[in-house]
Specification:
The complex is a heterodimer of chains A (about 100) and B (about 600).
Chain A lengths: L1 H17 L1 H4 L3 E2 L2 E2 H65 L2
Antiparallel strand pairs in A: 1-2
Helix pairs in contact in A: 1-3
Chain B lengths: L2 H22 L5 H6 L6 H12 L2 H14 L4 H17 L1 H7 L4 H8 L3 H34 L3 H51 L4 H6 L8 H12 L14 H17 L1 H4 L8 H19 L2 H16 L9 H9 L3 E2 L20 E2 L6 H16 L6 H7 L9 H9 L4 H39 L5 H24 L5 H25 L5 H24 L15 H15 L8 H11 L5 H12 L1
Antiparallel strand pairs in B: 1-2
Helix pairs in contact in B: 1-9, 1-20, 3-9, 3-14, 3-20, 4-15, 4-19, 4-20, 5-12, 5-14, 6-14, 6-25, 7-8, 8-9, 8-20, 8-21, 8-22, 8-23, 9-15, 9-19, 9-20, 9-21, 11-15, 12-22, 15-19, 19-20, 20-21, 22-23, 22-24, 23-24
The chains are: A mainly alpha (about 100), B mainly alpha (about 600).
Chain lengths: ~100, ~600
């Protein structure tokens, strides 16, 4: 997320505004570079950023989901193990109680 | 068929579509009324968000502003799109996870305070009403231009249409009509752009045409810069010439970005999707659909600028293009000759020679008087040079709104395309107006009435109150459209500054920090918005000079936002943290979906 925001600032505020005058000495196609960034390039980058964000974050979410599900299953397994042990001990005590 | 007839036909057709959609999406419960039942697919939601977002300002004025301001027009392009990135990354999915109906809802629950809720309601209502006044005015203006009716008649018709589909379908009706309105407006915007690009630059892709070469081989932008220099205008492509210096461009852009992310009617568009993942995709679709228009606007601006300068300057009265005569009648462009029979359109460096003006807020009678006086001056029988008067009134140059409206005529397109542009402008204005009205309605009916005044209200009662409030708000909006609070497009820009200084910090801090408590947040919000509002009002009505680092009222939202952040963070150590319930709420919002049980499992693991 921090990386995405950094790119956002660098292109939108940086290339589009803060460095627009120094970039204007370069050209891309028929455009001065600073002007192009401000009026076209920055918007293209913004679209790409949100695309990247949606893809990456949704993937992270899915992975987190899967981790949680495995943890839940492991816990349920552990619970079953505990219950089984308790049952065995209970049975053992009863069994042990009768001489 | 005449333009008027085509306009009636096409606009009438689009209105019929909206009403049919409204009927098909009528709602029965508050969940449908406020958040469209939370079942809107992500791509459709993206289209609706794009239409909601692109108001009459984006559609009509932006290309015109770019064509007049050149590089500096990028403030609006970058500000309004960059803000989307902030919204998608910092706000949308988390608020969707929160899952309630409105922004004041989130603020009230996060800061466990009805005071916070009420402050949020006041801000939301104020910002939304300011914004919506401009839209209803825009509707009136489009009607008056194309159908040759009075502006107020147009406002009444707009009010009637919105009233029907907003009260019937609430958010659901509004969302699906916005989807339709998106397609109308994007078609209406792109068609003339593609046509003029083909005609002038030989390519149907406007973005490539913008960088292309004219028939004589010179790149368009270079030619524009040359013409600008010749005629005494500041360079078109060079940054920071003219009256927009680096600091102000930076501040206005940043204020627009943060304001975008803080506008209640945009935020609430993310409550209507099914899942958190869908909220993220919805944000992507929205910016893609918005970018379609925003990437084309600079091309429209440049083409129109070139056509206007080339087609008007130095021409004799008999050589003037037809579109010029038509638009002269509306007062959006006026020609006061200096006696040589040729048009001179010059910029600030050659201001005395300029002969093209606009009527601005002058009445048609005042303009006629001025012209008569000017004619007498030309004939040598007394009178005055009208140009001096208009120049001093700041009315040099044609009106910005002429660009988008006149572009189809400059490209000699058929009447039905021009009528389509009218329908597009109306679609843009109505879609935004309805989104804003829903915010106003939900703030009053849901946040004020249900959450504070009458928590025991039944579904039926809440729905009834919601419908009543939105109906009432539409009428008030219409009233504001007929008597606008002056300088409407500027006021819209100010609404952004207010949103940036009030909502943006308090929501971002609320999501990402568990420590920020109630009192610091409320104080920060109040300080930010009061500072920004008084600075703006002081500059507009009190003649106050821009004392804050030379930043003008359009960019001052940045300072207000900084104040909000600073005050809130500084006060936090002295006030208690939010309670356990709220802290868990925050954690659950930040966890990915379905992690409620995950939280318990992790806690249990720690307890071992």
């Amino acid at each position: 997320m921090a990386v995405l925001l950094l790119i956002w600032a660098a292109v939108g505020l940086g290339a589009g505004i803060l460095f627009a005058d120094s970039l204007s000495s370069y050209r891309i196609g028929g455009f001065p570079l600073g002007f192009w960034f401000a009026q076209q390039g920055s918007i293209l980058v913004f679209v790409a950023l949100i695309l990247a964000y949606a893809v990456i974050m949704n993937r992270l979410d899915r992975k987190h989901h899967e981790d949680l599900e495995m943890a839940a299953r492991a816990d349920a397994g552990a619970d079953r193990l505990d219950a089984a042990r308790a049952a065995v001990e209970g049975a053992g005590r009863t069994a042990g109680g009768t001489p | 068929m005449s333009l008027q007839a085509w306009t009636f036909l096409i606009v009438g057709f689009t209105f019929a579509i909206y009403l049919v959609i409204a009927w098909l999406s009528r709602v029965r419960d508050t969940r449908g009324f406020y958040v469209a039942g939370q079942g809107i697919p992500a791509s459709a939601n993206g289209m609706a968000t794009a239409a909601d977002w692109m108001s009459a300002a984006s559609f009509l004025s932006m290309a015109g502003l770019i064509s007049t301001m050149g590089y500096a027009g990028s403030m609006y392009l970058m500000g309004w799109t960059g803000g989307y990135v902030l919204l998608a990354l910092l706000l949308a999915p988390y608020l969707r996870k929160f899952g309630h109906f409105t922004v004041p809802d989130f603020i009230g629950d996060r800061y466990s305070s009805n005071t916070a809720r009420v402050v949020a309601v006041v801000c939301a209502v104020f910002i939304s009403f300011t914004y919506v006044a401009g839209q209803m005015r825009g509707v009136g203006i489009v009607f008056s231009r194309f159908l040759e009716v009075d502006v107020n008649v147009g406002v009444y018709v707009g009010v009637a249409i919105v009233f029907v589909y907003a009260t019937l379908g609430g958010m659901k009706g509004i969302t699906w009509t916005q989807v339709a309105q998106y397609w109308v407006l994007i078609t209406a915007f792109l068609t003339p752009a593609i046509a003029i690009s083909l005609d002038l630059m030989g390519t149907p892709i406007p973005q490539i045409g913008l960088g292309g070469a004219l028939a004589d081989g010179t790149p368009l932008l270079e030619k524009l810069d040359l013409i600008h220099a010749d005629l005494g205008f500041a360079s078109y492509t060079q940054p920071f010439v003219g009256s927009w210096d680096k600091l102000n461009v930076f501040c206005v852009t940043l204020a627009l970005m943060a304001g975008t992310a803080g506008l209640p009617h945009v935020i609430v568009r993310f409550y209507t999707v099914r899942t958190v993942a869908a909220a993220r995709w919805s944000a992507f679709w929205a910016i893609l659909f918005i970018a379609l228009l925003y990437l084309t606007a600079p091309a429209v601006g440049a083409f129109a600028r070139y056509t206007m300068l080339d087609g008007l300057h130095g021409r004799a009265a008999s050589e003037l293009p037809e579109w010029f005569h038509k638009w002269e009648k509306t007062g959006l462009i006026l020609w006061l000759d200096d006696g040589d029979g040729r048009v001179a359109y010059t910029g600030p460096a050659r201001a005395e020679e300029n002969e093209l003006f606009r009527s601005g807020t002058l009445s048609p009678a005042a303009v006629a008087d001025l012209r008569a006086d000017h004619q007498r001056w030309l004939d040598g029988t007394g009178g005055r040079d009208g140009r001096v008067e208009l120049r001093q009134a700041g009315l040099s140059g044609p009106d910005n709104d002429i660009i988008v409206l006149a572009t189809p005529e400059m490209a000699r397109l058929a009447n039905w395309i021009i009528a389509l542009v009218a329908a597009g402008g109306l679609a843009a204005a109505l879609s935004t107006a309805s989104g804003l009205l829903l915010v106003i309605s939900s703030s009053v009916a849901h946040d004020l009435y249900y959450r504070i005044l009458n928590p025991r209200a039944t579904e039926a009662q809440r729905l009834m109150v919601g419908r009543t409030v939105i109906g009432f708000a539409v009428v008030v909006a219409g009233f504001l459209g007929i008597y606008p609070p002056g300088f409407v497009s500027q006021v819209v820009a100010f609404a952004f500054g207010l949103a940036a200084s009030s909502f943006f910090p308090v929501i971002v801090l609320g999501i990402f920090s568990r420590r920020i408590g109630t009192v610091p947040a409320i104080t920060g919000m109040v300080v930010g918005v009061v500072f920004t509002a008084s600075y703006i009002l002081g500059s507009l009505y009190g003649g106050m000079p821009p004392w804050a680092f030379g930043i003008g009222p359009q960019g001052i939202g940045v300072v207000g936002m900084a104040l909000n952040f600073a005050v809130t963070i500084a006060m936090t150590p002295f006030f208690p943290a939010p309670n356990e319930t709220v802290q868990r709420l925050i954690l659950s919002i930040r966890e990915p979906e379905g992690a409620g049980p995950g939280l318990e499992i992790e806690r249990a693991a720690e307890a071992d």
